[in-house]
């Protein structure tokens, strides 16, 4: 994998990470103008690295590094969509650190881990992984929006002037806008996640004849999907938002994280060094 | 004569305390009258708004204060309210009144409503005869000062009113206000102002409920809004995204259980309560509900406080202007004390002049008009020259209270002037009105 471009991208994302930290310590103001061009540049390099990897190595998505890199790119992509539509960089507070970690992890120079099962290394598997990664990315942004919703709620309840309160909350978009971001991300991610899982099941049926439902990765993924569905259901039915929605989104996020970690324990999603 | 100003405002007392001291419009005339008749008090004025209750009086110098009256009127022990009160005398009282009228002391600095409220308080006090002489001059001056502050500083034009703060907050909750429904419970001036701002920023529709249905109807026509019966208060409020409550209800109108029902109906979409009523209409516990935001006047103050810093420059300029006006008013007031003496001195010398002219007139025979004129000019010139120094001394002494008394006594003894007559005093009052 062409690491050089990815490393340049990591450098740009590092600026994003510092921006997020500066926001937390209420000093992010002066950075606001330049941070979006910097991370956009990072995305460009990131894209080049992904495209080059795809061209040279024939889309070996089944490497941990490549998946992480692609996931980071997808998260950045949704972040940019939100920025264009809602004119806010607030989700960057969570997005930048995660993207930095993901790209950093995939940019360190060591032989990337590959799935042990050679069947997972090509073909339809690409679709399965890409769809699920998009679902992860959307879920993460929805979770981010939930947390921002709570921050904004607290700021409004503490009764400071919206223009005066310093730091993060003064820059947050309106409560309803954050809510919409979270909801739209959820809506966007759900079909990806669903089709990703369906594709996985179909693949497993086709290749192995049955699905290993007791495999920790499969179990956690299905649990995550169930929570995802529950999130949408409570939203549609009860209009749940704010704290309760944030708890559910956090739970789904943890499940997703668990599903990711399960790559190291799973029967056939297992990563090994080549 | 002494000016005495006692009161409490949004800075000295919380909303709960202010609520107990608020005097309704209906009770105000009787209250002012009672204050004016209180022993030791010669003139009185009471200003009662949602953010302040001020008692202004001109008292005999030996009067102790207004605590006795307050305890009497509100049936409270002085210890209960003393911590919340401020008290200003003379110069400080004048300064405070000027600041209040100029909206420098307002919750929302620069808001225009307070001057009208001071004028109303003045009209009320005047109507019952509680304000007649010095207090009249003071109030009239305060209106002029307020006007000056408004026109010479930017404090009014950059005024962040409670209404616009409410709009900022609404935008922080809802983003765009387009399509949002605003509900007015109670159709007071404040809520009208807030509604006007919200509509100007794109709020979709407006519902108005008022205990007096005609007032709601009138306001609704003005805004192209919809008047709803007060009996359907909760149904209408449940339809609104923003509720502005300003009724005169003695207890809470909106409690947690109501708000819970609203949330259920709105499927948990956020809701914003702006409570500008004193006493409050919305139970503070409502704010504990997820997705409901309640701001009462005190909260709006804390929001507005942060604004104050922004306009420090303007406020400083306005404060300078007020300091200058206070000096001018005090000087004029002191001059007023020496005016009767000056008048009697003038009268005294004029009498002498007339008598002397009459005495020698017969011996001079026929005089030409020019000669008549010359005698007139000569005699006037002499008495003016004689009067000049004593008058100047009196005027300059007027800046110091103690010296004033000494110099007045001295001049009276030197020229053998009789005691200040009622007539002289009257003319002195008139002259303060016009002189500068």
Please characterize this protein's 3D structure:
The complex is a heterodimer of chains A (274) and B (436). Helices cover 73% and strands 1% of the residues of chain A. Chain A has 274 residues and is mostly helical. Chain A has one domain. Chain B has 3 domains: 157 residues, 2-Layer Sandwich (Beta Polymerase, domain 2), CATH 3.30.460; 148 residues, NAD(P)-binding Rossmann-like Domain (Rossmann fold), CATH 3.40.50; 107 residues, no CATH class. Helix content of chain B is 57%, strand content 12%. Chain B is of the alpha/beta class. A 6-stranded parallel beta sheet of chain B has the order 7-6-5-8-9-10, sandwiched between helices. The chains are: A mainly alpha (274), B alpha/beta (436). Chains A and B meet through helix 5, helix 7 and helix 9 of A and helix 8 and helix 13 of B.
Features:
heterodimer, A: 274 residues, mainly alpha, two-stranded antiparallel sheet, 9 helices, flat, B: 436 residues, alpha/beta, Beta Polymerase, domain 2, Rossmann fold, 3 domains, 6-stranded parallel beta sheet, 4-stranded antiparallel beta sheet, 17 helices, 12% strand, elongated, disordered C terminus
Strand order of the largest sheet of chain B: 7-6-5-8-9-10
- The backbone outline of chain A, from C-alpha atoms, is flat
The number of distinct β-strands of chain B equals 10
Query: How widely separated are the two ends of chain B?
Result: 20 Å
User: How many structural domains are formed by the residues of chain B?
Assistant: 3
Strand and helix map with partners:
The complex is a heterodimer of chains A (274) and B (436).
Chain A (H helix, E strand, L loop, with lengths): L2 H22 L7 H26 L6 H23 L5 H16 L6 E2 L9 H33 L10 H4 L3 H34 L7 H23 L3 H20 L9 E2 L2
Helix pairs in contact in A: 1-2, 1-4, 2-3, 3-4, 3-5, 5-7, 5-9, 7-8, 8-9
Chain B lengths: L1 E8 L5 H7 L6 H10 L3 E8 L3 E8 L7 H8 L3 H4 L4 E4 H12 L11 H15 L6 H19 L9 H13 L6 E5 L3 H12 L4 E5 L3 H11 L2 E2 L5 H7 L2 E4 L10 H10 L5 E5 L16 E5 H14 L1 H50 L7 H29 L3 H15 L6 H13 L2
